[in-house]
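Posted in: Structural Biology > Protein-Ligand Complexes

Title: Requesting predicted complex, calcium ion in pocket

I'd be grateful if someone could produce the 3D structure tokens for the following input. Sequence and ligand are given below.
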Amino acid sequence: MRVLVVEDDPGIATALVAHLGRLGDAVDTAGTLSQAWATLAAEPFELVLLDLGLPDGDGMELLRRIRAQPAGRMPDPALPVLVMTARDQVSARIAGLDLGADDYLTKPFDPDELAARMRALRRRATGRAQTRLAWGDIEVDPAAHTVLRGGQPVELSAREFSVLLALLEARPHVLSRAQIEARLYRFDEALESNAIEVHVHRLRRKLGEGLIRTVRGVGYFVPAEPSP
Ligand code: CA
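-- Reply #1 --
Done. Output follows.
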């Protein structure tokens, strides 16, 4: 998923980018409130990890501003926000949750716990209660990062996995190439113009031709159900 890490400690930010990158998330960072706002207003993110103590103010300010956005604007007022802070006082926690934080982690935290909480927020945001996604004989487990086809494990790269997850979560809606790219790539990553096509080609080879359909000139989609 596309994640913005708002964190002014370069050590923590770098560690988060590395850890989440390994899981296939596309992570950008912002070290100040103003940089975070500019980034969120420019690109569609799916989750914000928010530090509170920032050089130009309190992270709560950013949260308040996001939640006050009119619907349909960027950033989305319903954007999931996970607050991470060194403050472990109950009062800071309550204030954050009252302001509309979706979850809370006190630093230092276990990166695996963070990843699990992120998956839970993602499930909630996409309205899914179950943890696994199934389509025909294909079964995807976002937590374990595994894909089964007819019960047999299929090896996917982190990027292929992200493309598959994006399309399965959006089904039966079409995602444009730009929308898929936005989920996969950070601002500063150079992008081959045919990168998404290459991922889709490999996914079809590994998972069958019926799964991902092309809408010429528009994008790709996964049908609600496999054709009989
Ligand atoms: Ca800080």
